[in-house]
Design goal:
The structure holds 2 protein chains of 2 kinds. By secondary structure, chain A is of the alpha+beta class. Chain A is built from 2 helices and 4 strands. Chain B has 5 helices and 4 strands; from the N terminus they run E-H-E-H-H-E-H-H-E. Classes of the chains: A alpha+beta, B alpha/beta.
Chain lengths: ~80, ~130
């Protein structure tokens, strides 16, 4: 993902730590920027996309690699 | 946007953690959130209070050891990221003989039960 603007490393924290980290950085990001969230919290795989859809951002992709969720989110507003 | 009213009275680690998770995630998702702090939950929001919240069981023990965000941090994020209101119960303040200056800065004005119930008429209410 060469156009990713920022990587948020929230590995080894538990719910809702990764989500709150993401939200903090989304507030600071510009519209159109893509953020990558790294999380080892199993719930993040479902919970983060749910939040992204609810608040109206774009889920670019979500993939679990070697026990780490890599979730790409584009800020839409 | 929906409204969520959270009542914290018990003050154990697990219940404070769950209430903080509700508050932070709902507020950061755009919901209107009001947290009413009373009874044994209120002391954690006074300055210079250093007691750790007692655990009820296994989950509390685990949360103390692992990378779970502290509940006070989650409540602060609810205020900062989502404009949640943390309202101290005026009765509990009177009993503890504390004034607004003794409270953490993120807390809203002392609030009586009548006012809280009036404001909470619309929306869901959960109690911890």
């Amino acid at each position: 993902m060469s156009d990713t603007n920022k990587v948020i490393d929230a590995r080894d924290t538990f719910c809702p730590g990764p989500l709150m980290e993401l939200i903090t950085h989304m507030k600071q990001a510009e519209v159109g920027e893509t953020l990558e969230l790294l999380s080892t919290d199993e719930g993040s795989g479902n919970d983060v996309p749910e939040w992204v859809n609810k608040v109206g951002h774009e889920l670019v992709s979500s993939e679990k690699i070697d026990g780490v969720w890599h979730i790409f989110i584009r800020k839409m507003k | 946007m929906s409204k969520l009213n959270i009542v914290c009275v018990t003050g154990t680690h697990e219940k404070m953690q769950m209430a903080a998770m509700f508050a932070s995630v709902a507020a950061a998702s755009g919901d209107e959130v009001v947290v009413f702090l009373s009874m044994n939950a209120l002391p954690y929001f006074t300055k210079h209070y250093s007691e750790a919240a007692p655990v009820e069981g296994e989950l509390g023990e685990l949360m103390s050891k692992k990378g779970v965000p502290p509940f006070k941090q989650l409540f602060q994020q609810a205020v900062e990221l989502g404009d949640a209101k943390l309202l101290p119960c005026s009765m509990a303040l009177d009993l503890m003989e504390i004034t607004g200056e003794d409270l953490e800065p993120e807390l809203g004005p002392p609030t009586g039960l009548t006012r809280f119930l009036s404001d909470a008429e619309e929306g869901h209410m959960v109690t911890f």
